[in-house]
Structure formats: C-alpha cells, structure tokens
C-alpha cells in the first residue's frame, strides 16, 4: 500500500518521540512512511520532498524537529498538502524554541502546530486521521470509537481510584 | 449555501483579528459561518456547538480565543471535526498564555494551532482550505494560484526595492 | 459521611502530586472525594460533574491538571461552587503552560489558582478549609492551630540550626 | 452596614484596575471596604490589617499588587480569612513578576490567585461572592442569575454577528 | 561596483529596521545590495538566492526576519558564505520568537545572530565589515577609526552631562 | 564636596530613568557624580573608571544599563567598591535581558541588582544610602525619617480613598 | 563574638545552597549568625527579626528563599539595615519566580538581589564583606587579596589547559 | 603553527561543551589555541587578551560563557577581530541568561551569537571556518565537502530507517 501520511523528522534521535505518531497511524490502519530529512543539513532533499508530496499522493505530512525547528515550515513552503508540526524538546530550552519556530509562521504558509514532545507527536497523527476523515465516513466512525476508548480508560481509572482510596 | 467552515471566537472584541480568516475564506469562495461562543461564559452553547458540527456538515472549525484560551480545546473535545486554534494577544501576556492554552493539548484531543494574532487568523483559514483541498482538485489549483500570487507580490516588492535604492 | 470537598485530576499520573491535598483534608477531618476526570478525554463527564456539584452538596472543588490545563476552567464554567485550580508540572514546560491555562481565566468565571505542583496541591486543600471555615468557628480554630503547628516546626528547625552550627 | 469583603491595593495608582472588583461587589450588594496598604512601605499597617480581619468580621479579602507583589502573601500570613490575590501589570514585565510573586506561595499559606489585571480584579470579586455563597442560598441564586446574564450577553452578540455579516 | 555584502529581508515592512545595516555599509563604503525574499512565500527564490551567493562573489549575507524567522537559516543551508541573522520584533512576542528561530540552529549550519531589532541590524553590518577586514588592512583601520569615533561620542556626552548637572 | 556615590549609565538616553537615583541622593544630601560610560563602546574608560573608584573615595557605585547590560559587571570586576546594578528596559525584551545580564553574575564578583527601570533606579540610591548608613548614625536617622514619610504618604492616600468612596 | 552579618533562609532545605555564603564569611573571619525564618509560616518572627537587626548591631542581612520569595522583602520593609536577597531554585520554575519576587521591589524598599542559587549565595556574602569594607581598610585589603586569589586560580587553570592540550 | 582561531571559555568546567568547537577546527586543520579567561575574575587578562588578538594574528575568536555571560562582549569591546559567542547552559536558567547576555549587544560592538550549548560550540567553529574561507578557496572546498558529508550522514540514516521499519 502506498503511504497517505508521512512522518518526517530532522534527526534519527527524534524517533523515540515521533514513534508516538506511528503507533496511532498503525492503530487506524493508515498506510504511512517514515523519513529523516534535515531542513538545514539536507536542504535540497527537504525541498524535493516538499515538492513531491502532492504528486506522490501524500495527503498529510507530520514533521517533528527541535531547536530552531524549520523543518515543518520549509516543507510547508513547498507544498499545499497540510503540514502538521511537532516541536521537540531536544535543546536546553525545553522545546519552547522549537514551539516558536514552528507555530509563529507568517501569514500565507500555515503549519498546524501540536504540543511539545510525545503528546504532540501522538496528536499529530490523530489530527492527520481527522483530516483524512473529513471525506471518509468509516474513518469518522473509527475516530468516534477511539474517542470512546480513551474516555473509557479514564472512567475505568476514575472507578479504581474511588474504590482503592478509603476516604475519611 | 450551507457553511463548510465556521469561525468561532470567544468575544465580539476578537472580530477585528478573526476577520483575517474571513477574508481568506471569501477569496477561496468557501461558504462559512461566524459565531461568538465563550467556552467559559456559554459552556452549554460550546458543547452543543461542538456536538452539532459533524451532523451539520461542518468540515473544519477555526476557533480564536485569548488568555486561558480553552475554546478550541473545548470544541475539539466534543467533535472529531478538525479544529484549528488561533491564540489571541488580548491579555497583558501578549498571547503567550493563549498560545500555551491552545497548543499544549494532552494526548488524544489535538488542536491544530496557528501563530498568535492576525497572522494566525489568516493562516487558520488557509490551512482550512488546505484540509478541504485534500479531496478537491480544483481547490488544490486555487491554492497553487494563491501561492503564486503571494510569491509574485514579494517578487514585485523585491524589484521595487532594488530600483528605488541607489546603492553605493 | 458525604464529601464536602472533592479533588479532581485529569489523569491517574497526577495522584502522586494531588495526594498532598488529600493529606491536608484528612488532617482537618474534612469528608472528601477523589476523582479522575479529563476535560478533554471525558468532556461529558466533566460537564455532568460540574453541573452536579451544587446539588450533591459539594462546597469546594480542587482541580489539578497539567499542560493546556482546562479542567478547573471547564468545571468552573458549569458551577457556582468555588473551584480551586492546581497547575501541574507534567509537560516539558515545567508547569508554566498549566499555570497560564488555569489562572488567566476571562472575566466572569474565576478559578482560584495555587502554586505549580505539590506546594499548590497542599495549599489548595488549606484554602478549601479556609473557605469552609468562613461560617464554621471550630474550623477557624483548627486553622489557627495548624498555623501555630507549622510555625513551631520552623522555630524548632531555627533553634536546631543555631545550636548545630559553630559560628566564627 | 459593616463590610464583609475588603479590597486592598498597594498603591492608589492601582484603583483604575481594582475598581473592576468594586463594580461586581456593588452589583451583588455585598458591603465592602476599600484600602490602600503597602506590604513594603507600610508593613506594620499590613500586619495589623491582616491580624484584624477575622475580629472585624471580614470574610474574604481581595489584594491587588504589582511587581514583587507581596501584599496578598503578607496579609495571608497573618490571617486565616481567605485571601484572593490579583497580580497587576504595573511594571515593565507585564505582570508576570506579580503573577509569580502572588501565586507561587509555599506550602502552608495559600493565596487564591486570579488573572493579571482587570479580568483578575473582576474575577476576584466574583470568587469572593462564590465563597460567601457557600452558606447563603440567596447569593447562590444571585450567582446563577449573573451567570445567565453574562451568557445571554454573549448569545446576543452571537446573534448580532450572524445577522450583520453577509456570508458567502 | 558589484555588491560584496547583501541585506535580505522577509518583507518590505522590515526596511525601516534593516536600513540601520545599510547606513553602516555606506559609511564603510562597502558595495552592497538590498533584497526582499521570503523563506516561506518565495521559497524557490530563497534557495536560488542562497545557491547563487558564492558564484556572485557575495562575501557576507545579512538576513533579517521576524516571527518564525527561518530566512537566515534557509539561506545558510544553501551556502557556505557567512550568514548573519537579525531577529526582528514584528510579532506580538517582541522578537523572542525570531531570536529563537534564528539563533538555535542545529549543529552543522551556523547563523551568526545579532540583537533583536535596530541594534542588531546595525551590528550585523559592523560584523560584516569585521569579517571583510580579516584580510583587508585598510578596513581594519577604518574599523579602528569607527571605534574611536563611537567612543568619542560617548566621552563627549559624558563631559556634557558632568557640566550640565549641578551636583550637590 | 567630593562625590561619595556615583551614578553611571551606558548612554545619555538612560538619564530619564537614572535621574530617579539622583533625586534620592539629593534628598539625602549625599554628594554624588553623574557619568556616561559604555562598557562596550568605551571599554578603556570603564576599566580606568572601575580601577579609580577606591582611590577617589567613591564608596558606592550605581550602574544602569539596558540590553546585554555588562556595565555594572565590568565595573565590579575592577573594584571592590560595592556596585549596584539597575537593569533598564530599553530593548524590545522589556528589560529582562538587562536583568539577566546584571543579576546572574558568576561566583566571586557580585552586583547588587535592583528592579527593572525607574523603581530600580530609585531603590539603587536608597540602597546606596543604606550602605553609607552602616557606619553613620545620622544617615540611619535620615533613613528612618524617609521610611516614615513614605509610609505616611500611603496612609494619607488610604484615608482619602476611604472618604472619597461611598461604599454600599 | 557577636554576629555582624546574618544569613536567614526560609526553610532548612535551603541550607545546602546558603552554606556557600557561610564559607565566604568564615574565610573573611566575619562573625555571623544563621537563622531559619519563614516570611509566610512565621510572619511574626520575620517582623520581630527585621525590627531587631539595627539594635542588635547586625550590619548586613543575607536572605535566601525560593518560589514566591518574600523573605528578603519582608525583612527589608522592617529595617534600614542593607538586605541582600538570594533567589533559590527550589520550585519547578527554576528560580525565576524567586528572582522576580526578590528583585522587583517597589520604589522605597530595596533588596540587593544576587544570582539564582549557589553563585548568588556566595556572592551575597562577598557583597556583604564589600559593604563592611566601605569603612574598614583591612577588609578592603582582604577583598583585594581574595580577588587576586580567584584570579590566580583561573590563570593556573588557563596554563594547565594550554599545556595539557596538544593543538594542531 | 601559530593559531589563527582561539577558543576562550570562562571556566574549566566549560571545556566539556567547548571541545565541540575544537573537534571541528581539528577536522578543518585550522591551527587553534585554547584559553580559560574570566571576564569577571580575570578582567585584566580579558582586556589584555582582547587587545592582543589582532597583533598576534588571530583572525577569529570563539568565546563561551554561561550565566551573565560577558566574556564575548568584553573581548569584542577591545578588538575588531570577529568574536563569536557561545551561550552556555551552566546556570539554573538553562542558558537563556547567557543567550541574552551574549546576543543583546548594543549598537556598535557586535558578537556573532550561536545556539546555547554543544550545538552552538560546534557551529561557532564552523562559522569561524566560513569566515576564514571568505578569502581562501581551498577552505571553501573543504566546507562544501563537509556539507556533503553531513548531508550524506542524514541520507544514510533516512535509508536505514526506511528499511528497518516495516510500515503498514
């Protein structure tokens, strides 16, 4: 199956965080690809990659990068395919540098920015599924089921806590 | 025409910023709606609104709010329709409070966050069009044309500057 | 005994911090409940919960959450029972995201915000007791005793230090 | 009528912001007092003031201060009456210094902190009313009415916007 | 004369700040060019521009941009010519977003970052002259003279102040 | 009379803020001097100045600077005379850059740092008087009187407010 | 010997940091005292302590506290003895809360603020010695010797590095 | 061989970070020196060092320092040789204090600032080589080769990831 979503990251060190996106795409059975492309060290690859997305049938891209995180922005500037950015906390500034570099895009070229780190990587994939679901009824149902499942997990823990704790 | 995108804001004071989103949707001829709903002052409206989106055929929602900006997150928690959040700089903290409240969503419920203020409002609408374009070839072309147009505007200014300035 | 104070948290991972609130309520013999409710993953529970508080006789609610911490605000928007918010440092931003998301509530819907993390959880419970004490003379006395006790603990350590150290 | 709530501020320059609290107390017909006391310039007044609160029948105190805003904390350390703190944006740091100085209280002495500036001053008074309402059924009803009123104001503006705007 | 330094900016709105760099280059009689190129809106121009620098004999590039300021980084990724970045305070975040986006470059692709705004634009040009002076003795002398001149201006003001003020 | 305190600032633009220090020294009749010395533009002056302080009988130095505010630190590194630093909000970063550059001195070379801007300039002079008062009984009395005076000003305003306002 | 300098801290947990101040005072043979006083938990002690300083012959006070660090400010408001504040990094905010709470004192009541943590504790004591040295020639010499010693330590390490490293 | 680049740091504790610069200079076979000089503890050494650079034939200086990092600025104020600053994350503020102290230089005296920590140290050396390459064709080629090498390393990892991962 050809990928419809791709997860790109600036360095192989980012895989530990970005795999959170992978897990979600697997769960929703979305064919996906994984790439390491650096906006700064492999700029020509990044451009070529951005330009190829639409032709290759990629519908959503997820880009994770840390520090002066330009990856999502660079890809976004070369494609009209929706780009989701995940700021990574890989510098001493706890990811606030990556957040600002990803979210503060100038008017014209949006990057849909998620939370810093693992929560953001996970949500990037869920958001990608939500985008795909806009015209896909079965994916909509899958998302509703997913929501129910995560709600039930919270409810279950709520009940366990109520039981486990002996309150005054 | 029934709206396919809706722009929601927490207060009527936000309209001056959120109208940037409106302009883009008009330019792309996307039928849209405009709403004022407060996550905190009209919580039941916000919930009802979130729950109604899918049934009403809304494909993308844009939510702008300032300070402890919960609007996008509250709507997102009640729908699987993609929610785009615009943090507004309407408190003394220059919008950084709204940015953190919008972007730092926990794993499970994503909000696609844009830049603080007008650039973010504009980009929210462009991103909404990009989402709609995933399965719409003519919108893809319209986006490509839009990109060309904004590129040409920069190129034109670049030429004017080169001429206007007499360099040493 | 029916609870008069409830401690709600967004995730079971927060219990290690929020138990600081529990300890204080136990010490003051305040009947309390413990709940796990996520503003984003179980939004309907959060609403239902907020709406039920007054009827169920809950007099004060303590809500702890991290990241884009909407829990306290969401509950506050559905009740007139005083809501105390505890921002948790569970994201890479050290709790400053949770602080802004909790404290920067718009005019109309207050959340009484405490310090980030354990100190905040402890103080949330003390503040809850202070609220209950407004119309309860014996609780006022208990609070005065508590104050004396914590003051004496400091005084004792002050004396130990003076003795232990041989100064020039 | 003897005041049951008092609004204290560190400087007469703060009255323009703190009057937001006054308006709310007037609306709810809560007898209140207004004071200017500086934690640093009139420390003995601040202490005496803190110690007098309970005896004088004050049930809730609202303290607004900017910069290294110690006023709320100093009062709180001398009373068991609930203290609500309002951080003011009166220094070059936009109120973030006042926020940290007010909210980051150590375990033992809570200050219920509100948003920076006018929204915070308003909410401080609403929260004070919520505290008084814990044992006062008619105040509870007044609060419910107030909530309805502010919700209706939003709904009205929502309708006006829908009509005023001609959407595509 | 062919330019040896070029000043590039992301938008024509930036000229008011970047002209500080121009003034310095004029003073040192360095042939220079002025360009408007947007990393995001004219990405292909930015790449082409970066790739052309060395061939065209440009020895130093000064790039000023605001918000998610990628311009300097994008140019730097396509050239080995030294790139000096000037973060501009053109977003609600006072230039701290531009600073982080410019300075926090990953290992491999440096951008020499200057202060936010006008001071940075001025210093970018002075630093460019310092780079050119490494192998140019007359420029070194010009720089020494410039240093003397700015020192004398301070000394003169110091004397004026001493005279003007009658001290106790 | 020879000055015993000197106020140094990095630029003549800083005089509007630093004059707050001057007013206090005049009020306490402390002979003082005013200087403009730039740590960066007149480094040799700064060094010479630092080295001369003790010999010239200067007992306390007040140094105000903005941005990467090195002035206080540079002077402190050349003298054992107490140096008081005033961070000025003269860059787009609202003085937080000057605060960090002034206060975060490494172990060995202290700078006594005051608040950002006018409050800091005023307090720098009061602190200088406090240092001089350590061995000067009449200055101690003058300080006590000053404290009374500023306390009385607050008390007066407190009374005016109580009268002016008609409370419910 | 009666102490002339006292080191006060808000909690016994702070001793590990504040002992850096102690070491310096020992080295300079300054008689000193060590106290644990909490501005919030033992407010009456703090006031009494502040008021007693001048009478007891204390010439300089060093106060270290974390979070909403009011200790130095509270003491300063009750004495004209110079108060040196050390912000401690004991909360999740890395000491920036303590820094703002200590340094941003309002006009009238200065606190001489040092760096966050150990460097600040050490420098507080050195600055205390500098204050004492204003009227003490032998302490001035001791300070000059101390400066030489720390300079020599750097010079020694500089030489070791030059030797140890074999450069290209 | 006489050094043409020198790496200076404020403390021997910084060597673990600054060695990243050393590695790059070795790789490009640039003769270099290593120094420990403290702007604050050995101010005369720093001045003498700054003044000697041009005469000694040093073409570029790399200065790394943490906290109130004045080292690069102090050296820059005494030389017209290009100074590259590396802010180090050696204080509780994660290097943001060092970043502001290094980058926010006033107009007239530039410091070319790199990223905080190891990435910055590495890039400082690469940028130094870029400066040297301005008039050195073989160094330009070496830089182009270096760029290719780091690009190839990314491409290799990209390929490994594609193979290693079995995608849906």
Q: Could you characterize the architecture of this molecule?
A:
8 copies of one chain form a homooctamer. Chain A is α/β, with parallel strands linked by helices and 168 residues long. The first copy, chain A, has helices spanning 15-27, 43-52, 71-77, 96-103, 118-133, 137-164, and strands at 5-9, 32-36, 60-66, 83-88, 112-113. Chain A has a 5-stranded parallel sheet with strand order 2-1-3-4-5, sandwiched between helices. In chain A, strand 1 (5-9), helix 1 and strand 2 (32-36) form a beta-alpha-beta unit. The radius of gyration of chain A is 18 Å and the shape is globular. The A-B interface holds A 20, 54, 59-60, 80-82, 84, 99, 103-110, 112-116, 118-119, 122-124, 126-127, 130-135, 140, 143-144, 147, 150 and B 20, 54, 59-60, 80-82, 84, 99, 103-110, 112-116, 118-119, 122-124, 126-127, 130-135, 140, 143-144, 147, 150.
What is the compact description of this entry?
The structure is a homooctamer of 168-residue chains. The first copy, chain A, is α/β, with parallel strands linked by helices. The first copy, chain A, has six helices and five strands, in the order βαβαβαβαβαα.
Regions of chain A with pLDDT < 50 over 5+ consecutive residues? Answer: none
How are the strands ordered across the major sheet of chain A?
2-1-3-4-5
Broad structural category of chain A: alpha/beta
Percent of residues in β-strands of chain A: 5-15%
* Percent helix range of chain A: 40-55%
Indicate the mean pLDDT of chain A: 96
Rg estimate of chain A, integer Å: 18 Å
Quaternary structure type? homooctamer
Largest interface: A-B, 40 and 40 residues
The N- and C-terminal alpha carbons of chain A lie at a distance of: 58 Å
Total beta-strand segments of chain A: 5
- Helix count, DSSP H or I runs of 4 or more residues of chain A: 6
Shape of chain A: globular
Q: What's the SSE pattern of chain A? A: EHEHEHEHEHH
For the biggest sheet of chain A, the summary is: 5 strands, parallel
